[in-house]
Amino acid sequence: MSDRRDGAPEDGVPEVDGGHAATTPSTHTVRLELADEPGQLLAALHPIADNGGNLLSIYHERGNKTPRGRIPVEVDFEATQERFEEIVEALRSEGVNVMQAGTERYAEEVTLLLFGHLIDTDLSDTLSQIEGCESASVADVSLAAPQGTEESSSARLRVEARAGETETALAAVRDVAGAKGLRVVEPLVGVEA
Amino acid sequence: MRLAVVGAGAVGRSVVELAGEYGHEVVAVADSSSAVVADGTGDRSPGVDADAVVARKAERGIVGDADPADALAAEYDALVEATPTTLGDAEPGFSHVTAALERDRHAVLANKGPVAERFGDLRAAEADSAGEVRFEATVGGAIPAVSTVEDIEPGHVTAVRGVLNGTANFILTRMAAEGLDYEHVLAEAQDLGVAEADPAFDVDGTDAALKCVILANVLSAGAADDPVDAREFSLDDAEVEGIRDVPGSALRLAAEDGQTVRLIGEATGETVRVAPRLVPENGTLAVSGTQNIVQIETSHAGRLNISGRGAGGPETASAVLGDVGRLK
Question: Which residue from A minimizes the CA distance to B264?
């Protein structure tokens, strides 16, 4: 039970122009510790659902108890920032042990290639320009410059994007690359070959 | 059916050779400078002698002693247009097709020019004629791309994508497999006859783009309530990037991640795009060598994949003769 749902944010949520106001749901992960007694998991999920959280996945590791004999559970859900805080509060007031609560800012990931005069055009500036885009973050870079720094070289980028914003992130990469005369080899997004 | 074949390259010659097997007879053949028209006195059939035509073309570079205009004026039921693809006004192919339609004869195209560059004009000429226009051979050689889209009905096809140029695919496959650079593999492809001396049409993505433009026209016209109102596409509407500058190092980086690069064309009723794209190394779209693949995304029937030979005389001729068989 650890499938992650991709796709756009819930319908009907007003999108504030260009920004990510508190009204846009994002993906959150909470790590809970439950007593090994019947009904504990259900009791822990209620405060999430009751406060407008949209459950995405539950990872319930029954065989792996903590030294105090409790069972760790990891729950992913979508909620606005405001609701997320309410949910954590509600969980705690129900007596659920919340070990960790965090927001996963980036839910989607794509790999792409860049090629051209990567070094001459200042690769680190290229990467920080991509990072400058709200939707995208560069998670990993591999560079291949077999003919030295003056010839054409290639890079493989792992780019993380917010849920539903992969296209926006790719467009940002295209713009940054285009301005420097670099070429982008994009993945076929949404096509499982 | 009685066929007139215009264009005596690999495809035209194969149509002439294979027509008999499909139950048709070739009554006229023309190339750019000469023609032969059957006089109805052949010993075995009233058509032209296919072997003699092919031999004359090989030995003397002509198909016969008549004028090309005589072939267009011959008594045929369907004209097979297999002259080289031209852009812009798509001539002389376009005029060959309209000459047939004006006489209420059918036209079957292997030439992409008229279908990609003048789709609206072509459909208008067809509407005024008792003849029909078909063009399966213009997309993906032997692969039945257009007729499959027609069978599913274009209104229920959301996108068609795939590898539609064997030359570009051969080059990318060899570059990835051998760790070689573009220039080296291109020279190899030219020696093998896989790439033309001037490879621009293939490696710059133009050929794949024309095929996608044709598919976009089929999707757009088929989905419209009235085809006259449908958006018409030409090469100018396509966003095209080729493979010429893709360095070997990019393919190596892709391979490290279990992926590879293919020149992928995509057509919907709204957009046409051709570009090198990252695809999973062992995925459906990563066909090898000169193979082509067409992937059809449907509203109710999931995804269909058809792979096969995207070029070649007999392969493309089989698509032409399949179209002839579909004519009413």
Answer: A188
Contact by Cβ (8 Å): B152, B296: yes
What pLDDT score was predicted for residue A22?
58
Q: Which candidate from B161, B261, B295 shows the least CB-CB separation from A185?
A: B261
Q: Which domains does chain B have, with CATH numbers?
A: 2-141+316-326 (3.40.50.720), 145-309 (3.30.360.10)
DSSP run (H or E) holding A76: strand A71-79
In the three-class reduction of DSSP (H, G, I as helix; E, B as strand; rest coil), residue B104 is classed as coil
Choice between A105 and A144, residue whose per-residue pLDDT is larger: A144
β-strands A54-60, A71-79 pairing: antiparallel
B189: Cα separation from own chain's centroid? 20
Give A146→chain B minimum CA distance, Å.
7
| ipTM > 0.95 (yes/no) | no
Q: What pLDDT is attached to residue A13?
A: 42
CB contact under 8 A, B253 and A156: yes
List, in order of start, the domains of chain A with CATH numbers.
26-104 (3.30.70.260), 108-185 (3.30.70.2690)
Which positions of B are catalytic?
211
Q: What is the pLDDT of residue B159?
A: 96
Q: Which residue, B237, B210, B232, B208, is CA-closest to B220?
A: B232
Q: Which of B249, B262, B281, B296 to mutate to test the interface with A (most CBs of A within 10 A)?
A: B249
Those residues of chain A whose CB sits closer than 8 Å to some CB in chain B are: 111-113, 115-116, 142, 144-146, 152-156, 183, 185-188, 191-193
Contact call for A188 and B246, based on CB within 8 A? no
**Chain-centre distance of CA A116, in angstroms?**
29
Mean pLDDT by 10 residues, chain B (328 residues): 96 96 96 90 72 92 93 96 96 97 98 97 96 97 96 95 97 93 94 92 97 97 86 96 94 95 96 96 94 96 95 95 94
Mean pLDDT across chain A = 79
Q: Are B321 and B110 in contact (CB under 8 A)?
A: no
Residues 6+ apart with CB under 8 A from A149: A119, A120
CA distance B203 to chain A (A): 15
Query: Over the stretch A44-101, which tens digit does the pLDDT of each residue have?
Result: 899 998 998 998 888 877 677 777 778 888 888 888 888 888 888 888 888 888 877 6
Q: What is the DSSP string of B109-141?
A: E--HHHHHH-HHHHHHHHHTSSS-EE-GGGSST
Residue B305 touches chain A, beta carbons under 8 Å: no
- The pLDDT value given to residue A5: 41
Environment class of B180 (CB within 10 Å of its CB; exposed 0-12, middle 13-18, buried 19+) = middle
Give pTM, 2 decimals: 0.80
Are B245 and A154 an interchain contact pair (Cβ–Cβ within 8 Å)? no
